[in-house]
């Protein structure tokens, strides 16, 4: 019953995602009264401050341990994850009005989303939240079991003085990271992924409608009207796709840079850290898995968007166009030419989010690891 609302057939496109964003202080409601707006803004600012506290304290802790290479690299790895999350939050807050405009246009477009797709949108954020929390929780429990700091961070007291100070420091780190950094990142990933899922489903719907066009003199007028609606929808989806890519290009750039640096750091750390330092090795693996999961989701969805947008050209060619009037054949040719240029997600114009980019990142990471491993041996 707790998740009944998540899978309601009557829910809007992005209900679950917008609720998630709302709970983590990234999506104020339009129907708020003045006092509610002030309270929510205060809540949002508090979460911003908590995330900055985590970044600052762990950065100082990293600097304080610069003499110990293993701890320094481990802390740098964990702090990099927070930098990634916080920078994406900043980008999202700056571009929030553009995201709101895009979601409103999608909601008023009249496009239908299947129940299974709505369910997938909801399941996505739930599963990612559970998996990410489980990975971080497992690593944190290992650190607690060994009475070691989850992350070396500056505190106004000595965390190692007694058990009370240790647990207080741990609670501060958890409070400043889980919701302000981790859950906010998942909420943003959820809304971006859901928009891409929507676009992919609509591209597939267009392909099916184009293939189903069957001309005859009896249905000349109705088919022309239907073909016109298909072209209008294609133009609308192209505009949505370009707006999505433009709005989140800095977001994807931060994601891509963070994963690249994460791969390099982990390659260095695995070759340099003593195998007996199990907690450090566990932290490397935990945060690397989180980074790879996030990168895979973005790259897979970006790749799917390219494939489905290009699929419209193939669907148009496979339509029974030989029986169409010459003027409609010319219009179909224009659709084919336009659809041959795939719609994609760009990481700041540097790289296109696709499985090719993901594979290249993995290959580069392994190459760095192999070189460093040979150098150490």
UniProtKB/TrEMBL annotation:
The chain crosses the membrane at residues 45-63, 69-94, 122-143, 163-183, 279-301. InterPro entries: 7tm6_olfct_rcpt (IPR004117). It holds the Pfam family 7tm_6. Its main location: membrane. Keywords: Cell membrane, Membrane, Olfaction, Receptor, Sensory transduction, Transducer, Transmembrane, Transmembrane helix. The keyword Cytoplasm does not apply. GO terms for molecular function: odorant binding; olfactory receptor activity. GO terms for cellular component: plasma membrane. It is found in: Cell membrane. One of its GO terms (biological process) is signal transduction. It is a multi-pass membrane protein. Belongs to the insect chemoreceptor superfamily. Heteromeric odorant receptor channel (TC 1.A.69) family. PANTHER family: ODORANT RECEPTOR, ODORANT RECEPTOR 19A-RELATED. This is Odorant receptor. The gene is LOC106128219.
């Amino acid at each position: 019953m707790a998740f009944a609302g998540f899978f309601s057939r009557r829910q809007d496109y992005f209900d679950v995602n917008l609720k998630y964003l709302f709970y983590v202080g990234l999506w104020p409601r339009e129907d708020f009264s003045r006092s509610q707006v002030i309270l929510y803004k205060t809540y949002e600012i508090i979460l911003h401050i908590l995330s900055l506290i985590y970044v600052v304290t762990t950065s100082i802790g990293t600097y304080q341990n610069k003499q110990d290479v293993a701890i320094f690299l481990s802390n740098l790895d964990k702090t990099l994850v927070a930098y990634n999350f916080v920078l994406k939050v900043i980008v999202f807050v700056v571009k929030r009005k553009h995201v709101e405009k895009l979601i409103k246009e999608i909601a008023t477009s009249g496009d239908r989303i299947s129940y299974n797709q709505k369910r997938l949108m909801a399941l996505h954020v739930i599963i990612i939240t559970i998996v990410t929390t489980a990975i971080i929780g497992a690593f944190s429990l290992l650190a607690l079991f060994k009475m070691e700091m989850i992350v070396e961070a500056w505190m106004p007291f000595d965390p190692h003085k007694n058990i009370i100070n240790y647990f207080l420091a741990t609670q501060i780190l958890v409070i400043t990271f889980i919701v302000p950094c981790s859950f906010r990142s998942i909420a943003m990933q959820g809304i971006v992924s859901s928009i891409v899922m929507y676009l992919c489903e609509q591209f597939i719907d267009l392909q099916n409608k184009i293939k189903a066009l069957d001309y005859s003199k009896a249905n000349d007028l109705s088919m022309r009207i239907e073909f016109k609606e298909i072209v209008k929808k294609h133009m609308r989806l192209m505009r949505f796709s370009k707006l999505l890519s433009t709005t989140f290009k800095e977001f994807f750039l931060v994601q891509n840079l963070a994963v690249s640096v994460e791969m390099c750091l982990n390659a260095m750390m695995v070759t340099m850290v003593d195998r007996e330092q199990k907690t450090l090795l566990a932290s490397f693996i935990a945060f690397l898995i989180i980074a790879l999961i996030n990168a895979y989701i973005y790259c897979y969805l970006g790749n799917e968007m390219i494939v489905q947008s290009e699929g419209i050209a193939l669907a148009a060619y496979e339509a029974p166009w030989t029986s169409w009037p010459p003027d409609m054949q010319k219009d179909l040719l224009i659709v084919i030419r336009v659809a041959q240029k795939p719609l994609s997600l760009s990481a700041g114009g540097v790289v296109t989010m696709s499985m090719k980019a993901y594979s290249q990142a993995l290959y580069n990471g392994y190459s760095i690891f192999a070189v460093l491993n040979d150098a150490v041996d």
